[in-house]
Amino acid sequence: MTEQTQALPRMTMLSAEQCRTIHFASLEILRRTGVRIYHEEALQLLRDSGVQVSEGNLVRFQPGLVEWALERAPSRIALCRRGTDQVAAALEGRRVSFGPGSDCLNYLDPRTGERRKFTAQDVVDCIRVVDALPEMDFCMSMGIPSDLELDNAYRWQFAKMVEHTTKPIVFVCDDRLDCEAIAAMAAAAAGGRDALRLNPTLLLYSEPSTPLKHSETATDKLLYMAEEGLPIVHSPAPMMGGTAPVTMAGGLALGNAEVLSSLVMHQLKRPGAPFVYGSGLHHLDMRTTISVYSAPEFELARVAVAEMGRFYNMPTWGYAGHSDSCAMDEQAAADSAFSVLTSLLAGSNLVHDVGYLEAGLTTSPEMIVFTAEMIQMLRRFMGGVSLDAESLALDVIHSVGPGGEFISTDHTMEHFREFWEPTLFNRKRVEDWVAAGSKRLGERLREKTVAILDEHEPEPLSEDACQEIESILQGSS
Length: 477
Fold this sequence. Notes:
The chain is α/β, with parallel strands linked by helices.
């Protein structure tokens, strides 16, 4: 449909000129202050490009090199389903894909309501929940199992994800050796390394160290993913009032400088390698020194980061479906709805952390299931209103006339299913609600979550791929 026939909800916060203001501020940080890089290969790449390196590892960037890197970064990344060329998450424009977060210590058990340490079975259960929900477009590991003594926990997590979901995987890991093993496992499931590069099923999430530092380990991972031509988001986490200026503008400029310096190294290694723009700008609650996930300032930062990414014509990284609440309660529900709507209005492309409670310390499968309902509902809101001739229905109105009814018309029969129908929310009157057991939303949510845990069976991985992945795990243990 054209703009004339489709009215869509829109959000704009930063003008092009305001984006340029942040961009120029970041260029000045990189020129004047610079960044510390603790990685010899990256330093040599920069020296070879004419960058000034002083004090051993303090790098100051000319604006031209930053803009050279921006011109080479791709504007689109397609993440695919396991073993296919079917796109599961198209990171482009204002298209939004949702998924969970990674590596929580605690699990909120939907069967008992108990908050406890993650087990290996809990990790697998969470992956199966994500696989079952159409609104979840990709998977992350969600929990660290406390009942396994593993030197290679991240590799184990990835193996379980690739076994129990066909959806693309955003992974985290310790170091380059982890990256190599995980890429090998993904290639085994994809049909080879070339197939994996063409139809990527994985993306690495890693971070520089705010303020203005690139550790050896993080940079090693960054350069490896560039070398392999596999997608990465290398997203700093500036903490306003802690590791970044307390003002949002200062935090945006600092985080943007860290992203841009990462991108330069990445593109020097392999021009055109896929890179997602992201900055996890948070702030400290000064009463508790806790990193706040659910606040108007956090959502404003998400909008600004999405708009800076579009200003650079790059795919963007976002957050939604999370809460500072310690329980799956009314606070968590409100935070989920607010953050999902912000992500959809802002047009963030790859939106993670669905299911986070306690500011990222706890994963709740019920929060994932609830947020899936919010995504479904709010995507319908974002679909807006059609204004074409069929929707205006002038002939139908004329045919029915004053005092008539529309329920029996063909037009109603053809279009009534376009209204969104909830799976969790109640629309019954009280008599029917009582007759159905007087169940509140929390009870219905728990029942739906447990039913997924009991009933969903993911599409199996081929036996050959399973054996190859097990061989990789055994060889790296």
